[in-house]
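HOLO CASE FILE
Compound: cytidine-5'-monophosphate
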Amino acid sequence: MAADKQPVVITIDGPSGAGKGTISRIIAKKLGFYYLDSGALYRLLGLSAKRHNVSITSENGLSALAEHMDINFITGDNGQFKTVLEGEDVSRELRTEETGLLASQVAQFPAVRGALLNRQRMFARTPGLVADGRDMGTEVFPAAELKIYLTASAEERASRRYKELIAKGEDVSLPALVEQVRSRDESDMSRDASPLRPAEGAIEIDTSDMSIQDVTDTLLNILAVKGFKLSSQVTN
Ligand code: C5P
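Model generated. Tokens follow.
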């Protein structure tokens, strides 16, 4: 029997709010690939630590939790993604700024990152995977076929988040969001363990002045040049 073909991996890294999640999902759908939202794993770990009273400063406690966390990513009949922690749908709580901050605290620890490494690599399945995060191209999938680094100014990323939250009826301040974006960048880029930086060979795209459609078109062009075949089949 012929050996199974290795799944193709495309990595999309960058700071929070650069549009990675939206774009990665669109590209995964167009290619018929699986999708990994690696930030969700760190967010789930932050939530799980809070629920189980594991200290956010305990590297050992957090890494044990990371290995055994009972999590599930589900697509409902309506096509909506659901994230489930120990049987409970935590999709909303997962996306709050507070959970984002918890995630970036737990993400500082090398043992936590090590514990999540295999869980992330297991998402690579045939025909392929689009992996979104901070260290997808540098650490988790260093041999990826295509590496993208999406970025945008802190002001633009905060303003996108502001519009999203206002549309949800939340009471937020733009200057406070700019501050949060800057402080998360600072902790993600300056930490010792897998700091955020473009992988070697990554194609960098500054999305500050681009719409989602512009970024999608740019990526589809890159995929076409690299010989990727677009598919109508949808997986997640
Ligand atoms: O992408 P998202 O905003 O959901 O990520 C939340 C936090 O998780 C990031 O600010 C970062 O600290 C951490 N993270 C990481 N490595 C990844 C993905 C996320 O350290 N691959």
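CASE NOTES: Residues 43 and 94 are 6 Å apart (CA to CA). The chain has one domain: 7-223.
CLOSED: yes
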